Amino acid sequence: MSATPDPRTTTATGADVRVRFCPSPTGLPHVGLIRTVLFNWAYARHNGGKLVFRIEDTDAARDSEESYQQLLDALRWMNIDWDEGVEVGGPHAPYRQSQRHEIYREVLDKLVAAGAVYESYSTAEEIDARNEANGRAKQLGYDNFDRDLTDEQRAAFRAEGRQPAWRLRVPDHDLSYVDLIRGEVTFPAGSFPDFVLVRAGGVPLYPFVNPVDDALMGITHVIRGEDLMPSTARQLALYSALVNAGVTTFIPRFGHMPLVLGETGNKKLSKRDPQADLFLQREKGFIHEGLLNYLSLLGWSLASDRDVFSLDEMIAAFDIADVNPNPARFDQKKAEAINGDHIRMLDADDFAARIVPYLAGAGYIAEEPSEEHRAIIAAAAPLVQERVQLLGEVPGMLGFLFVSDVSYAEDALKGLPANAAEVLTACSRALEGVDDFTAAGVQAALSTALVDELGLKPRVAYGPPRVALTGRRVSPPLFESMELLGKDETLRRLSALVQHLG
């Protein structure tokens, strides 16, 4: 029979909901991390509660200021805001663990006074030796040997020059909780031994500082990845001690989101997978609306027949209880398709502004475009907004508008018909007589000259001039491109390809 969840578990709802995002500043932000903050943020916003953003930077060997700044960059790019935490402050500052050591010392003192922790002097070698002598498997680890040391024994260890670690006295009964996503979970008594909270020498460990920060910051709902679920038992044990010691008055609720799998196999999406690199996805040309929409589908859905929706719609509907506990697979093609849908939802001016960094990054324009280039972008943007799934595709589509000499793609030249020069010459003759050099005027002239008079199919007729203008087999609409380039430049480029073909 399973144990009953602790009656001291929070019942907070609505505006009393407090969630947190607490990454370590190590390495580049990845999409799994963003899915975590997205679900926490959406849950807080849906309930009218608070999101706390703190940094777990107690590992000096791995943490870096560069990674911290990248985390800030990631959240700001994603337009995910927070109510308390680093950079914005709040009543529970400081929000970086490296600045909270005095706080942890005070909490440890309260646990000592409450008899919840004890001094442990056993070394790893001594633990292994005792396990071997007692016929106990080494992997079972610590044997709770130091629980009942006498004052004399402790004094003797100190006289040897040993410094104690501090271990939590784990309850000798089952520990249960109701997972927000997975339902009731029970950890049987004896599932894990008394564990270290503070190392010898006074260094506090993650299993201590993470729940302590949650307790002191009033976190009501801990929403995190399934891979952290095994640590929940230890956190429940520590939380019970924190309540008994007067550090907090309640135990939070826990919810464990499904794993995100790679595109193939059944392994968790690795930080080393290209799909996991958040900034690589940005470099490709994801917009935050599209990527967040897709990441929300990794465990949740707005409706069974609808994959594309706004963040406001997500917030209005989101409940952590609706998250599916089954693993979710990252599908790059689906992510890009959804991103394309969101690109088409942007208004024209917004889309034009967002493609500027990509055109600049490709070297076609300056980071601060000239007025002439701004005008070209404004006119050309609608021609590709309906055709791209990623902003990174735009330079390849519009780059021809910002160069004087077209570079012909090899596949474009190979795809030209044998009579390409004849077609290009006919194009030039037809366009020379066009006074109304608009898309409609150009189309009428070319249709008459190539389709009616030469009897060419449109696919054959318009392929050569497309390559002449853009250097590519695929481009924005041909007639609108000619209008943007103007009559003189269009004729020059048609002639240039004829010469190139010899």
TrEMBL record:
Keywords: Aminoacyl-tRNA synthetase, ATP-binding, Cytoplasm, Ligase, Nucleotide-binding, Protein biosynthesis. It catalyses: tRNA(Glu) + L-glutamate + ATP = L-glutamyl-tRNA(Glu) + AMP + diphosphate. A motif ('HIGH' region) lies at residues 23-33. InterPro entries: aa-tRNA-synth_I_cd-bd, aa-tRNA-synth_I_codon-bd_sub2, aa_tRNA-synth_I_cd-bd_sf, Glu-tRNA-ligase_bac/mito, Glu-tRNA-synth_I_codon-bd_sub1, Glu/Gln-tRNA-synth, Glu/Gln-tRNA-synth_Ib_cat-dom, Glu_tRNA_lig_a-bdl. Its EC number is 6.1.1.17. Transmembrane segments: none annotated. ATP binds at K271. Residues 17-334 form the Glutamyl/glutaminyl-tRNA synthetase class Ib catalytic domain. Catalyzes the attachment of glutamate to tRNA(Glu) in a two-step reaction: glutamate is first activated by ATP to form Glu-AMP and then transferred to the acceptor end of tRNA(Glu). Belongs to the class-I aminoacyl-tRNA synthetase family. Glutamate--tRNA ligase type 1 subfamily. HAMAP family: Glu_tRNA_synth_type1. Monomer. This is Glutamate--tRNA ligase. It comes from Microbacterium galbum. The lineage of its organism: Bacteria, Bacillati, Actinomycetota, Actinomycetes, Micrococcales. The gene is gltX.
